[in-house]
């Protein structure tokens, strides 16, 4: 039984890491496009704030917590 729990825990960690990696790639790509297309610094800051809010909302809805446990 402990073995099954360990595997489930490992799968959750891999899933969270994969999710976080995908999120960071999308975030970096969007930020890069925002900076290249429109070099207005304030709009970049607004984009960062919006993505941070989306990330926190996503973690809250999907994981039930603001930040995932490491």
Automatic annotation (TrEMBL):
Alphabetized UniProt keyword annotations: Membrane, Transmembrane, Transmembrane helix
Membrane-spanning ranges: 21-38, 44-63
Protein name: Uncharacterized protein
Organism from which the protein derives: Candidatus Nomurabacteria bacterium GW2011_GWB1_44_12
């Amino acid at each position: 039984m402990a073995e099954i729990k360990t595997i489930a825990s490992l799968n959750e960690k891999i899933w969270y890491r994969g999710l976080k990696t995908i999120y960071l790639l999308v975030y970096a790509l969007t930020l890069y496009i925002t900076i290249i297309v429109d070099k207005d610094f304030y709009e970049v800051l607004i984009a960062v704030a919006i993505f941070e809010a989306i990330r926190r909302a996503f973690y809250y809805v999907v994981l039930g917590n603001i930040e995932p446990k490491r």
